[in-house]
Amino acid sequence: NNIASAQEYPVKGFDVSHHQGDIQWQSISPQEFKFVYLKATEGGDFKDRKFQDNWLKAREQGFLVGAYHFYRLCRDGQI
C-alpha cells in the first residue's frame, strides 16, 4: 500500500477560505494541528472577505499562520 496517510506525519495543518464560512477556531486542537494557510486573494481582483478575521482568530488559538494567493492560468495574477 503506497497511499500516504496524514497520520504518518507528526506536523499537521490545513487551509481555509471564505468557502468554509465561520470557523469555530476554539474547537480545533492546536495540539493536533500546528499550522493553517488562509486564502488571501484569487485571480486579479478577488480578496477573501474572511481573511482578516480568520488570520486574527487562528493566531489567537496559537496556530502558525500563512497566506496564499489562488492563481488560475486563465486570469492575470496581478492584484
Strand content: 25-35%
Number of strands: 4
Our count of helices gives 1
Q: Biggest sheet: strands, sense, closure?
A: 4 strands, mixed
Task: Name the structural class.
Answer: alpha/beta
Uncertain spans: none
Explained architecture:
The protein is an alpha/beta fold. Helix content is 13%, strand content 27%. It contains one helix and four strands, in the order βββαβ. The protein has one helix at 51-60; strands spanning 13-16, 35-42, 46-47, 64-70. Strands 1, 2, 3 and 4 form a four-stranded mixed beta sheet that branches. It starts with 12 loop residues before the first strand and ends in a 9-residue tail after the last strand.
Core attributes:
alpha/beta; four-stranded mixed beta sheet
SSE diagram, text form:
Blueprint: E1 13-16, E2 35-42, E3 46-47, H1 51-60, E4 64-70
Parallel strand pairs: 1-2, 2-4
Antiparallel strand pairs: 2-3
In short:
With 79 residues, the protein is an alpha/beta fold.
